[in-house]
């Protein structure tokens, strides 16, 4: 099953993915910077109608680039394809916690989810993954200590059940 996401991004394993994702990120960053500058100019000049028209034009232009629907996203479970795409993006960018994740890039890669939905999914994903991360971060001394505790506990429970007559 071939994956098709927002912006027609290739798989994160392709060499073009990083360049395309970075271009999308820089474009969004540029648009946000322009909107911020327009807000500053509006406050200085007091001319709100021209600025709002400019902001709406930029927003509509960006919306057309993204190809997003007019309807609000519906609540539904993440499909296997979406989860795999999410995990590929997380792995590619090397995220280990939900903090600091660029949800715009990941939502662009997933293609069917908003940045807010990606943020929520990332929080839940890393909460579930935490026990595995803790297990992997244990040092050799910690592992030896835990194994010793397990052996002692096993001997206590088994030896107390044995009847010596």
TrEMBL record:
InterPro entries: Homeodomain-like_sf, Myb_dom_plants, SANT/Myb. GO terms for molecular function: DNA binding. Residues 74-128 form the Myb-like domain. Keywords: DNA-binding, Nucleus, Transcription, Transcription regulation. The keyword Cell cycle does not apply. The keyword Nucleus applies. Coiled coil: none annotated. This is Myb family DNA-binding protein shaqkyf family.
